[in-house]
Amino acid sequence: MAGPASDYHRGEMDISEQTATFALIMGITKWGSLVIAAGLLTIVLWFCTGAGFLAGAIAGAVLLVLGIVFLRGGGGH
């Protein structure tokens, strides 16, 4: 005896919402990791070395700018 009929057909559903959610989560992860890394670098250089606040802030800003440049990317797969 065959199973019940279903409206679901593999590969025919619209997955635009799932794709948008995945892109959002990946973006939050990527940019959030960059902000955390820049902040951590600043704090480590400020408190754990003799470099001081100014050197830590400059290094954190440089990392942030370079991260933005490299992570922005071209968008092509």
What does it look like?
It is a single chain. This protein is mostly helical and 77 residues long. The chain has a domain at 27-72. 69% of the residues lie in helices and 0% in strands. The chain has helices at residues 16-47, 52-72. It is rod-shaped and about 75 Å long.
List the SSEs and their pairings.
Blueprint: H1 16-47, H2 52-72
Summarize the structure.
This protein is mainly α and 77 residues long.
List its traits.
77 residues, 2 helices, 69% helix
Taken from the alpha-carbon principal axes, the silhouette is: rod-shaped
Which percent band covers the strand fraction? Answer: under 5%
Q: What is the overall pLDDT average?
A: 89
What is the chain-wise order of helices and strands?
Answer: HH
Question: How much helix is in the residues?
Answer: 55-70%
- Find the count of extended strands (DSSP E, 2+ residues): 0
The main sheet comes to: none
* Distinct helical segment count: 2
Structural class: mainly alpha
End-to-end separation in angstroms reads 46 Å
**Which regions have little confidence, pLDDT < 50, spanning 5+ residues?**
none
Radius of gyration from the alpha-carbon trace, in angstroms:
22 Å
